[in-house]
Amino acid sequence: MRHGGKILADALAIQGVKRVFSVPGESFLAALDGLFDSGIENVVCRHEGGAAMMAEAHGKFTNRPGVLFVTRGPGATNASSGIHVAMHDSTPMVVFVGQIDRAHRDRAAFQEVDYRQMFGGLAKWVAEVDDTARLPEYISRAFHVALSGRPGPVVLALPEDMLSAEADVPDLPAVAPMRAQVTQAEAEAVMARLAEARKPLVVVGGPLWTPEASADLVRFVEAQGLPVAASFRRQDYVDNRHRHYVGDLSVGMRPDLKAAMQEADLLLLLGTRFGDVASGGYAVNPAHPGKTIIHVHPDPDELGRVFRPDLSVVAPAPAMLAALAAQNREGRADWAAWREGLRRGYEAWLQPVESPGTVKLENVVKALPALLPEGTVIANGAGNYNMWLHRYHQFTRPKSYLGATSGSMGYGFPAAIAASLETGGLAVAWEGDGCFQMTLNEMSTAVQHGARVIVIVANNGRYGTIRMHQERSYPGRVSGTDLTNPDFAALARAYGGHGETVERDVEFAPAFERSVASGGLAVIELRLDPEALTTTQTLSEVRGQ
Question: Cβ(324)–Cβ(220) under 8 Å?
């Protein structure tokens, strides 16, 4: 006989779970007891939103479900932001939520919530476990659903009395490997359509990417002579220095790349859903795309959801790339001029545009490659400060970047913690002053669990993205976008980390080197000129328009 918490912990160990993220609650004390001697690390966080984002980042980084434990009521509602990230970003995740005793249901009991209703639109599957003996069944299904088709989050509610009750039930084996196969006929059909194109463009994105997929992608585009673009916040899928890489389809998309996407007569969409950001705000019109669309996605429900594909294949992008890379065909010679023109546009975009002030984000980003230790992962949240990272930094290897395509603020720092705990190495959180303050309380989590994270805080004293839109719509009428900020370096030291303040460009490299040498948590605050707003326009210029 085992209590439910022990059954649950044993099931997680069988699934290969090595680490979970949590904020403790009395509603799942039995689960905490089960984890006690399970060999599974429990990363104790300070807020359920930060914990959920760590679990999501873990899933994104490892291609295995990130596991989260939160308590009922406020714990679950706090965690919903990270669950939304997982759903939007197609990240496998399993969330366990404490629940009231079964006998107390429907009485508006303390912290009672109907989780099926609450998370119904935020998760792939939501269930409540009523029978302790069925825990292995539910957990097995949760891991299967989290990984199947378009991956995503699954929520299991655990009534407190069910979890503490005992049962004699056998364990179930781990999820069996789901080998995706692409037929020769499917690969040949893609190649036949490509051969008819004059100006094709390959777009890569989506979940469960692998280093092998990156290698196959390079083999494929080199053999065919194709240009390849990365969808929003998937820039590490291909070495940005490669001559076939032509840029990323992101917020603030490069103008000539957006025009080329519209001009292309064929789009080969591999893994990406090709949503509003990647399509340039539907600059490619779903009603009249004016081009051939080949869409490869693991979930059949995504094919035809927005864009009608001329050819669709239900398969993960890595499986299709393996099949395409094995094709013994040559591309069309007349694609070279098209591809090379797009590459020249990308290389021109890398040339820095000077921003105002004594600390310039373009110079900081350009300095990073020489300063980053081998294997460093970069994570970022949401805000205009990301424009500098997306535009000027060149990612060179897969699994070196974590960003929320959902555009969630507060994501970068928890994601960096999760990455560092997984690799044991350094992670850099590229943050804005508003973004960082949404989850900076997780600094104590980083210190407690030994995460090596350097936070670079771009401090311009405002919510920059919102201010940009505000100045465009209501110039000079500033309302709700200015911030009064703490001394971020001093705050890092208060949490037991290392703190630096940079007020001139020349101070950044030495500050970063000292932060690396500190061996743990470090925060580098960049004091920016308030005029710094985007990579191409100052605040005054936006207001003047």
Answer: yes
Q: Where are the alpha helices (DSSP H) in 42-96?
A: 48-62, 74-89
Question: 497: which 2 tokens?
Answer: 């980390």
Q: Dihedrals φ, ψ of 157, to 5°?
A: -90, 140
Closest CA to 38 of 8, 66, 10: 10
**Domains assigned to the chain:** 2-167 (3.40.50.970), 184-349 (3.40.50.1220), 361-544 (3.40.50.970)
359: left (phi over 0), alpha (psi -120 to 50) or beta: beta
**The two three-digit tokens of residue 377, written as one number:** 């992962």
Sign of CA dihedral 420, 425, 430, 436: positive
The per-residue pLDDT string of the chain (545 residues; one tens digit each, 9 = 90 and over) reads 999 999 999 999 999 999 999 999 999 999 999 999 999 999 999 999 999 999 999 999 999 999 999 999 999 999 999 999 999 999 999 999 999 888 888 888 777 789 999 999 999 999 999 999 999 999 999 999 999 999 999 999 999 999 999 999 999 999 988 788 899 999 999 999 999 999 999 999 999 999 999 999 999 999 999 999 999 999 999 999 999 999 999 998 999 999 999 999 999 999 999 999 999 999 999 999 999 999 999 999 999 999 999 999 999 999 999 999 999 777 788 899 999 999 999 999 999 999 999 999 999 999 999 999 999 999 999 999 999 999 999 999 999 999 999 989 999 999 999 999 999 999 999 999 999 999 999 999 999 999 999 999 999 988 888 888 898 899 889 999 888 999 999 999 999 999 999 999 999 999 999 999 999 999 999 999 998 889 998 888 888 88
Token digits for 349?
């975009």
Secondary structure of residue 370 in the 3-state scheme? helix
CA 475 to chain centre: 33
| Helical H segments across 443-487, by residue range | 443-449, 464-473
Q: Which two structure tokens, joined as six digits, stand for 452?
A: 């090596």
Quick check: pTM over 0.70?
yes
Closest listed residue to residue 401, CA positions, set 367, 355, 370, 368:
368
Encoded tokens for 468:
């940009």
SS3 (DSSP) at 498 = strand
CB 153 within 8 A of CB 94: yes
CB 278 within 8 A of CB 307: no
What is each CA distance from 435 to 59, 167, 298, 362, 410, in whole angstroms?
22, 45, 33, 19, 5
3-state secondary structure 274-289: CCCCCCCCCCCCCCCC
DSSP class of 462 = B
Report whether 20 contacts 35 (CB < 8 A): yes
* Residue keyed to tokens 């030291």: 493
Q: How many CB atoms lie within 10 A of CB 488?
A: 24
